């Protein structure tokens, strides 16, 4: 075919220029593909972090509002145990009565992050429009502190708290909540028949560090639970250490000194469709004012740390850098194509004299530009894959941090009265950066390549369309 | 074939209007060989461009086969060039990346002729100028004479009615010049072409049926048809 022959020969004649243009486009497109891959990797990392926190398939999460930090000088809530340091040494106080803390062991399974929500609210949420399913859960911390006998005296060691994160999982709705995202690596998961049993599933990391296996026993506030399964959560998550049936967690857990019977502190909700999530969120906020209603997207905005920084870097700097490089590549391609057309004025004038219409010559030039663009695009996709591979191989693990109020109270008594504070806990996880080139990015690269070729060709074509054959021939006569 | 009436072509140059061709009245019969002479810059090439539809007159009419070229749309003039007018240039103007055969084939592309038919016609055209054995050679691989033969083959492959040659021997040595003129004369005779040839060379001009001389944009005919019979030396 004459068109192909002419095109091929012309590109071969201008091979250096064609390679230069193709490389410029490849660089721009490669950068776009790499940034897109990095961005996709960051999004996946965010998704992994969020699903490890709240499980796969959870669209909306409701948590009881964080407990307020105690006011200075105000007595702890009734039933709550406080730890006081004063001139008389360490004391444990409950309902105004204090005893010497030295040599004591304090062990509480408490809801220290969220205030309890009545379990009846779970049923109410289930009935809301747009809600497919809802399950309650308890996010608890088992904190055990052994107070040394001579605590407070010179040379006495400090007490070392030992905390275990315990999750009370609704055994009738195991498809919702943190346990749903995990994979059972040994034994089995919890089941409906375990609702009132002292059965536990432990996280693989916790099991490894504590040498636990199926059949082992874990102790939670003086209760022994038999390990029935080991679960591995997605990489990058920071899962609870132990999962126990919700009913058991309600039975042995407390919040501000009160039992958690018939209470949860987290509700996991699945919406009927993605479109109904905002409406569901609004409905729940109306039903449970004061509690925290979080969707995956709003939670993502609370994530900080290097994951967040990388997401910003990929989305802002990466995107603008790609656009700038692409503009530069397109401009260089256009200028070089125009220069090539200027050098071929004689040739095009001759073709016009032979009876070639302008549009046929334009098609020839556009064809050459598009082929260069496609070659640049293919090289760009290759560069993009290489860039993504380099990022995956060399990027350090990203950290994702979600801040939450712990509600833990530390009170110190002094001459000026009690002073209290409620520290903010940060939930930080390490996430691997896996940049992966998506099919969409490849399609975008091809579109960009063709667009770049067409843009460069159109500048040359504009010149050809304005070329009068007599002028072209006079220039060389 | 051609009827030129009051043809004038003006150019704007440095804020001034310069007449390249002035008030030319000329009739060129079908099958005639007209040589046009004149000093550089006196309008020879402009006249040739006007005859080939590459340029349009500022005033006057150029009738070609009964059609006024000045009134035709660009697409119609382009079609006319593709079908009926062959060009030969002093600098050959071959596409450097295409072989002799492909350069000739380029002239058939606008006519929408099938590939097989194109090949046959290209082979015949190259054969008629004695270049069959150089069909696959690129312009850079051929001598000046061979390149001009390839250009002649390209002009003739579409079997035009008119052949416009702008100093076709201007870049050639004497021997090659004679060789090319002989080829042109032979083809003119055999095919009944209308040949309009611009040349500085009086020896070549003398072989034409008529000689016109351009001076300051005006054309004067010095020799009438048949006064000097064309002959191949």
Could you please describe the fold and organization of this structure?
The complex is a heterodimer of chains A (477) and B (233). Chain A has 477 residues and is α+β, with helices and mostly antiparallel strands. Helix content of chain A is 43%, strand content 26%. In chain A, the strands form six sheets. In chain A, strands 1, 5, 7, 8, 9, 10, 11, 12, 13, 17 and 18 form an eleven-stranded mixed β-sheet that branches. In chain A, strands 2-3-4 form a three-stranded antiparallel β-sheet, with no helix packed on it. A two-stranded antiparallel sheet of chain A has the order 6-16. In chain A, strand 3 and strand 4 form a beta hairpin. In chain A, helix 2 packs across helix 10 (358-394), helix 8 packs parallel to helix 11 and helix 10 (358-394) packs antiparallel against helix 11. In chain B, helix 5 (144-156) packs parallel to helix 6 (174-191). By secondary structure, chain B is an alpha/beta fold. The A-B interface holds A 1-2, 5-6, 9-10, 12-13, 346-347, 349-357, 360, 468-470, 473-474, 476-477 and B 45-46, 49, 52, 54-55, 75, 78-79, 81-83, 87, 89-91, 93, 95-98, 102, 105-107, 109-111, 115, 154, 158, 166.
Unreliable stretches of chain B:
225-233
Strand content of chain B: 25-35%
The poorly predicted ranges of chain A are 404-425
Q: How far do the termini of chain B sit from each other?
A: 28 Å
Topology:
The complex is a heterodimer of chains A (477) and B (233).
Chain A: H1 2-13, H2 15-54, E1 60-63, E2 81-86, E3 89-94, E4 97-100, E5 105-110, E6 117-118, H3 120-126, E7 131-146, E8 160-169, E9 183-187, E10 199-203, H4 204-209, E11 217-220, E12 223-232, E13 242-245, H5 246-252, E14 254-255, E15 258-259, E16 263-264, E17 266-271, H6 277-287, E18 292-295, H7 296-300, H8 306-343, H9 345-353, H10 358-394, E19 398-405, E20 410-414, E21 417-421, E22 424-431, H11 439-465, H12 469-476
Parallel strand pairs in A: 8-13, 10-12
Antiparallel strand pairs in A: 1-17, 1-18, 2-3, 3-4, 5-7, 6-16, 7-8, 7-17, 9-12, 10-13, 11-12, 14-15, 19-22, 20-21
Chain B: E1 2-13, E2 16-28, E3 33-38, H1 44-51, E4 59-64, E5 67-68, H2 74-84, E6 85-88, H3 100-106, H4 115-128, H5 144-156, E7 162-166, H6 174-191, E8 194-198, H7 202-205, E9 210-215, E10 218-221
Parallel strand pairs in B: 3-8, 3-9, 6-7, 7-8
Antiparallel strand pairs in B: 1-2, 1-4, 4-5, 9-10
